[in-house]
Design goal:
heterodimer, A: 873 residues, alpha+beta, 4 domains, 6-stranded mixed barrel, 26 helices, 55% helix, 16% strand, B: 97 residues, Arc Repressor Mutant, subunit A, 3-stranded antiparallel β-sheet, 3 strands, 60% helix, elongated
Chain lengths: 873, 97
């Protein structure tokens, strides 16, 4: 087992060294004793013994090298030396490790989020055979489409339907238990089979759930929820689980590790889609996502070829109201039904966050490069002090590669310790980042536990950064000949050149980040300043569900509205369909008499009387709704200015009529001011308001000076008095509006933080280099001062040295920033590509930092005492 | 080969003993730097042909004793064969050339 003993000897060579020394010493002593016995004197005997032995040191080294693993021994020696070097220079070590650790931590944190949200495949059997469907860009389908596509797919694939995960209130332990919030999802009966999820306890949905109109009221729990809430109780099957007011029976628990097919959402309970509102089976309400599993020998293209004609046929039949505008027909023809890989689940989170996350990763990468350049500069400065040491070692026979290996070991040690700190920092930062973006309305949950992908990412950037910041300084440090260094002559010019390069790199990236950060911040400010068209302060938005019979629903809703409006401290109340800015809208095309249907679909929003007053959207002419208005044709309608402008130009609109594309007639009775509905970007949308229809669930807007929780309690009391009405959750209108810009807020916040970090790093790099430059030129400055140069010109001298580098860095940084802004154009708002405000601000900020960074060295230069300087080496 | 022969014939001994034996038997014809024996010994030890151990000798001194291993015996036999055929070949060339 010689390799094992060689490994052991390399690990702890001291024992080996002692053994060898003792053995050879023993030999020489025996020889000396022998010679003494033959008559020589003691000193002569020892001398002859040594002579006969030969080159002791050489022989010992040869033996040593035979008996241990040389590479490991050398490397361990390097590591010990590097460690001692760091301990002796604590400031350098802490600065390098801190700045690098922060950068590596940021990268690891964002990468772990990217991996968990965008890249990780679902833990399902043969996940690469799964597919998701999309129609062009949209991935929401209705139940009728699902049935049609399922039929067309035939034996090529099995398709399943998934609703949108939703927070609902449930009583889980009994009829008297309080309501708890659970995450529910509607799925088609074969969903579990299609995905390949077996039960852990009990059974899962099967074709028994496919009965309508009397479906079994059963639910399936997720394993995590079962463990968390019921402690893994094995008697769970058959127990009652009440959602809202409907009782269900627990059919079973899905296997461990499966929490749904949508990354970012952990589902607690699944319901069969057959238990939902019957309307969805016949109307084209697009709420569902479709996933499927390909048959063993089928391909995605085959499936797409089968489904495309079916989809087109469905769309054409749906739009068959006679003539359609050419643009609409074209759109229908061109919308491709796409079959994407479903290995990573449905695309919900990916759509919203894919771009911002990759951008953030790129920004974090910039920070890493800046930090690497920073550490490289520090190493460069240190190599000045070690020049003599390197020269000595070269003259003693060390090969250049051996020296470079040692310097790279030092770099690797720094970057390993930085990675350790960074890893810990990332473990804290990643969940914090997710929490920043997750809101009550749109909660996001990710499994961020350490896994091999993230670990290997951290390890690779550790190694790569060691290479980045270590190689050039190592090359430079070992390149000058011994004679030159031992005389302290300027091999330092090469060092300065390299130093300028590093500072230039830092300046470029930092300026790029500062410009991009300024762009994001300005975008956010612009978005936040958009006039929503209503007064969002002081309005509580409540989701209310009503379980009364259909004919009483409208009355109950109106009563709730009136009673709420009459409460003290409530200035107004109104009801509406879904809440504004809640990702839901009812859109229809508009048909004017004598003209073809519009090419766009407009928003149709059902509201109650008092809506405009409650939200403070001015009513410009005509009248508000009354409780007598209903859905009888012609439907009383209030349109906003954008709608009027688009369809009626500058003409008066009161009294005019139009049709929806499903045939209903509308008559305009009022004109409201513009307001936003779904997004703050773009101008105000055209909206047509119409009276409420009996709803199962509606939104109650309450304008009040109280906070949402108190308002919610008050309304809950009124609701209980009316019976069969429940408040599901409450939020404020401000929060809803704010949640539409959470992506922008995230990017601006993090981009700004990174820009500040990059700026600080670049400024320290600049400071370090200027300091070095001043030190190098101390004599020259002293002479100039003696000859009468003024302080100002000395400042100028010091700064002129670096002006070229700074200018080059700024130009490169500007180019990089423009490219970054072009890539992120979708996220910017109110900011042009080459926006003078953004670039001006960035230049100002950067200039300020540069002035501060160069202030101290410049002052030092000006304060140099000529007498001291002239004696300086 | 010489070391292996000595160890196999004379039994285990230390480095000094081997050096002396080589000198003595070859009647001073082979005399090299004594120290250069040791890298050779260590090389053979790494190859597994001899094993070494620190033991206390009669004089109460610590010495590293080498002994031939089974693999070493095989190696010795192989080397002697090749030496024999080599020297036989040389002899034939000298006689018949």
């Amino acid at each position: 087992m010689s390799w094992f003993s060689r490994f052991k000897n390399a690990w702890n060579p001291r024992r080996l060294d002692e053994d060898l020394a003792e053995e050879m010493r023993d030999h020489m002593e025996r020889r000396a004793t022998d010679l003494q016995r033959r008559g020589l004197s003691e000193p002569e005997a020892h001398r002859q013994a040594a002579q006969r032995f030969g080159n002791l040191t050489g022989i010992r080294e040869t033996s040593r090298e035979l008996r241990l693993w040389a590479t490991l021994d050398d490397s361990l020696q390097d590591v010990r030396y590097a460690w001692r070097g760091l301990v002796r220079n604590p400031i350098f070590a802490v600065t390098a490790i801190a700045s690098l650790g922060l950068a590596i931590g940021a990268n690891t944190a964002i990468y772990s989020i990217v991996e968990a949200a965008l890249m990780r495949p679902l833990p399902l059997f043969q996940a690469d055979r799964l597919i998701t469907l999309a129609a062009g860009d949209a991935d929401a389908f209705s139940y009728p489409i699902y049935e049609k596509l399922r039929g067309s797919a035939g034996d090529c694939a099995r398709l399943a339907l998934f609703g949108s995960p939703d927070r609902v209130e449930a009583k889980v332990t009994g009829a008297d238990a309080p309501y708890e919030e659970v995450m529910e999802q509607l799925v088609s009966p074969d969903a579990f089979e299609v995905l390949g999820v077996p039960p852990a306890v009990g059974a899962l949905f099967s074709s028994a759930e496919d009965h309508y109109p009397a479906p079994r009221a059963v639910v399936v729990l997720s394993h995590a929820y079962w463990q968390r809430r019921f402690g893994g109780d094995p008697t769970i099957v058959g127990r009652t689980f009440t959602i809202g007011t409907r009782p269900f029976s627990i059919l079973g628990v899905a296997r461990q590790g499966f929490s749904g097919a949508e990354p970012g959402k952990f589902i607690d309970v699944w319901l069969p889609v057959t238990t939902t509102d019957p309307d969805i089976f016949t109307t084209d309400v697009r709420l569902f996502r479709l996933m499927g599993r390909l048959a063993p020998r089928a391909t995605r293209d085959q499936l797409a070829a089968r489904l495309q004609p079916a989809y087109r046929e469905y769309e054409e039949r749906r739009s068959e109201r006679g003539d359609l505008p050419a643009a609409v027909q074209k759109r229908i023809r061109e919308t491709m039904l796409l079959v994407h890989s479903g290995a990573a689940g449905t695309a919900g989170l990916r759509r919203t966050f894919s771009r911002p996350l990759w951008i953030l990763l790129g920004v974090a990468g910039c920070i890493l490069l800046i930090a690497c350049a920073n550490v490289a500069s520090l190493l460069l400065a240190r190599s000045t002090a070690r020049a003599a040491e390197m020269a000595l070692r070269v003259s003693l026979g060390a090969k250049r590669t051996r020296l470079i290996r040692q310097l790279l070991t030092e770099s690797l040690l720094i970057s390993s310790m930085a990675s350790l700190c960074g890893w810990l920092f990332g473990r804290i930062a990643a969940p914090a980042l997710v929490a920043m973006v997750s809101t009550r309305a749109h909660p996001i949950q990710l499994d961020l536990a350490p896994n091999p992908q993230v670990l290997s990412f951290c390890a690779s950037i550790c190694a790569l950064s060691a290479l980045f910041f270590g190689l050039l300084p190592a090359w430079q440090a070992t390149s000058s000949g011994p004679i030159v260094e031992l005389r302290h002559a300027s091999g330092q010019a090469g060092r300065l050149r390299l130093g300028r390069l590093f500072v230039g790199v830092q300046v470029a990236f930092a300026f790029c980040l500062v410009t991009a950060g300024a762009g994001f911040l300005f975008s956010l400010r612009n978005l936040a300043a958009v006039d929503t068209g209503f007064d969002e302060r002081g309005v509580t938005v409540l989701n209310v569900t009503s379980t009364t019979q259909r004919d009483r629903q409208l009355t109950v809703m109106q009563q709730l509205q009136m009673r709420t409006g009459a409460l003290p401290q409530v200035q107004g109340a109104a009801t509406a369909w879904m809440a504004v800015f809640s990702d839901a809208r009812r859109a229809q095309r508009v048909l004017l008499p004598g003209r073809r249907p519009s090419e766009r679909e407009e928003t149709f929003y059902r509201v109650s009387p008092g809506y405009f007053a409650a939200l403070r959207t001015p009513l410009l002419s005509g009248r508000d709704f009354t409780f007598q208005d209903n859905d009888n044709e012609p439907v009383a309608t209030v349109v906003n200015q954008a709608f009027a402008r688009r369809y009626f130009g500058n003409e008066a609109v009161l009294g005019r009529e139009f049709r929806r594309d499903d045939g209903a007639r509308h008559q305009i009775v009022g004109l409201a001011a513009d307001s936003h509905f779904g997004s703050l970007r773009g101008g105000p949308e055209p909206i047509a308001y119409m009276p409420m229809k009996p709803p199962r669930a509606f939104t109650l807007y309450v304008r009040s000076t109280l906070d949402p929780v108190s308002v919610s309690k008050m309304v809950e009391r009124e609701a209980q008095a009316l019976g069969d009405v429940r408040v599901r959750n409450a939020t404020s209108l401000e929060a809803l509006v704010g949640s539409t810009i959470r992506t922008e807020r995230l990017i601006a916040g993090i981009g700004g933080a990174f820009a500040a970090l990059g700026l600080i790093l670049a400024a320290t790099g600049l400071f370090g280099l200027l300091n070095y430059s001043v030190t190098r030129r101390t004599r020259e400055i002293g002479i100039r001062a003696v000859l009468g140069a003024e302080r100002g010109s000395i400042y100028g001298l010091v700064l002129k040295d670096l002006s070229g580098t700074m200018a080059a860095g700024l130009m490169a940084g500007l180019a990089g920033a423009l490219m970054l802004m072009r890539l992120t154009q979708g996220l910017l708002f109110g900011v042009q590509l080459v926006d003078p405000l953004v670039i001006g601000t960035a230049l100002a900020v950067f200039g300020g930092a540069a002035v501060i960074a160069s202030g101290l060295p410049a002052r030092r230069a000006a304060a140099i005492d000529p007498a001291v300087a002239l004696r300086h080496e | 080969m010489l070391t292996l022969t000595i160890l196999s014939r004379r039994g285990p001994t230390h480095g000094y003993g081997i050096a002396n034996a080589i000198q003595e038997i070859s009647e001073e014809a082979l005399r090299v730097d004594e120290g250069s024996l040791y890298p050779a010994l260590h090389r053979m030890e790494e190859a597994g042909w001899i094993t070494a151990e620190w033991t206390i000798t009669e004089n109460k001194r610590r010495a590293r004793i080498y002994r031939i291993s089974r693999a070493g015996v095989k190696q010795l036999a192989a080397e002697r064969d090749s030496w024999s055929s080599f020297s036989a070949g040389v002899a034939r060339v000298l006689r018949y050339a």
